[in-house]
Amino acid sequence: MIAALLLLCAAALIAVPHVLVRAERLRRSPRAALILWQALSLSAVLCLLGAGPIAWLRPRPLPPVPGGVVTALATIASLGVLIHLLVRTHDVDRRIRTARDEHRQLVDLVGRHEGEHTRVLKSEQVAAYCVPGARSRLVITDALTALPSDQLAAVVAHEEAHLRERHDLVLEFFTVLHTATPRFMRTDAALTEVALLIEIIADRAAWQEVGEVSLARAILSLAEAAGEQVPTGISAGAGAAATRIRLLLSDEPAPWQTLALYLFCVAAPTTPPVLSVLVAG
Amino acid sequence: MPKNAILGDLEQAIMDVLWTDGGALTVREVLDRLTARDLAYTTVMTVLSRLETKGVTTRERDGRAWRYRAAATRESMTAQAMRGPLDDLSGEDRQAAILHFLSEASADDLDAVRAAMAEVEAKGDRPRRRR
């Protein structure tokens, strides 16, 4: 019975991202929203992982369903999810790490070295990115350094925030979960939303340093440069520039709203275990 | 300076020599063209073979010596660095591997961006708030 409950819980939680991507208000407290996403995902995983062991430890069949069915389902869920997640993590981690290593070597060779981790590429195109990881690189172009100094400062502060706060680990966590979820259950919009939240958090760091006007100008400069390229794949970039600038205009959410979000964050992963204990007792 | 940084600088200096010259050079010729450096022959030899392992130089036999050349022009390698790891990775992995400040914007997006920008300019900087 507890196992069946956990499976139901997991199903409900897996449906949540489809609803959550529509809640644009959450973007105004990006940090709390990002933690909420993580908490809900973690909670779904906990439910799935817990169902198997509980079905074996406390086999209490539901009235209309034979106990064997629940136990079998729960076991498949737990074991399957565990193996699947381990394989996915290894897979995603290896691919991303290899790509970053190769890319770091590339920018080290062709870029001008400015300090320990900044590389400047000889290019007419305005662009900036970071290669995260243990030996991170901040990559900018000559054309970017030619921007007014406040815009340049905004871009650098934004990228440094990514590196300092290890946003790559958050993205990797969601990439693993995303690719581990069966195609018919997952939504690309969820991954895009999480990536956008991460950009907003980095924007806030830049905004603290240079103010919203300089940051907005920098976003515009890079949007104009990016507009000349052909879009590929999913990314936070599509339509994100305008969204990010509009968020600089919006008011701070009320404190109770952020507090409520954090309460949800705590409640999500604690509910399944507490629920199991209560029903068992 | 950490050992890796020195090695990184040397790798870059050697690639500069190969790119500038354009031809296939022996270890000795590379060493002679590295100005203002007090380097051992074996150091340059080691770095050149490291670069070959990485696939950024190629080498060919010339009598008893190897001749090294850059595998691609500086321009094409810079273009590759601009693209990011686009070719080998799926969309999801690509997004997580490298974090772009802004990766794309369509013409429609740009209009929306300019409209939003006008509003920010009109409002101006507000006093900084705490995060």
Structure characterization notes:
- The complex is a heterodimer of chains A (281) and B (131).
- Chain A is mostly helical.
- Chain A has helices at residues 2-20, 30-57, 67-110, 142-145, 149-164, 167-180, 188-210, 212-226, 240-249, 255-280, and strands at 112-114, 118-121, 128-131, 137-141.
- A 4-stranded mixed β-sheet of chain A has the order 1-2-4-3, with helices on both faces.
- Chain A is elongated.
- With 131 residues, chain B is mostly helical.
- Chain B has helices at 3-21, 27-33, 41-53, 74-83, 91-97, 107-123; strands spanning 57-62, 65-70, 99-100.
- Chain B has a two-stranded antiparallel sheet with strand order 1-2.
- In chain B, strand 1 (57-62) and strand 2 (65-70) form a beta hairpin.
- The longest helix of chain B has 19 residues, at 3-21.
- The chains are: A mainly alpha (281), B mainly alpha (131).
- The interface between A and B is large, with 77 and 56 residues.
- Strand 3 of chain A pairs antiparallel with strand 3 of chain B, so a sheet runs across the interface.
Defining key terms:
heterodimer, A: 281 residues, mainly alpha, 4-stranded mixed beta sheet, 10 helices, elongated, B: 131 residues, two-stranded antiparallel sheet
Task: Provide the low-confidence segments of chain B as ranges.
Answer: none
Using CB atoms under 8 Å apart, which protein chain pair has the greatest interface?
A-B, 77 and 56 residues
Shape of chain A: elongated
Largest sheet of chain A: 4 strands, mixed
Straight-line distance between termini of chain B: 36 Å
Order of helices and strands of chain B: HHHEEHHEH
- How much of the polypeptide of chain B forms β-strand, as a percent range? 5-15%
Strand order of the largest sheet of chain B: 1-2
* Count of strand segments of chain A: 4
**Major sheet size, sense and barrel closure of chain B:** 2 strands, antiparallel
- Shape summary of chain B: elongated
Q: End-to-end span of chain A in angstroms?
A: 12 Å
State mean pLDDT of chain A (0 to 100 scale): 87
Question: What is the average of the pLDDT values of chain B?
Answer: 84
Q: Which regions of chain A are unreliable across 5 or more consecutive residues at pLDDT < 50?
A: 230-235
Tell me roughly what share of residues is in helical segments of chain A: over 70%
Radius of gyration of chain A: 22 Å
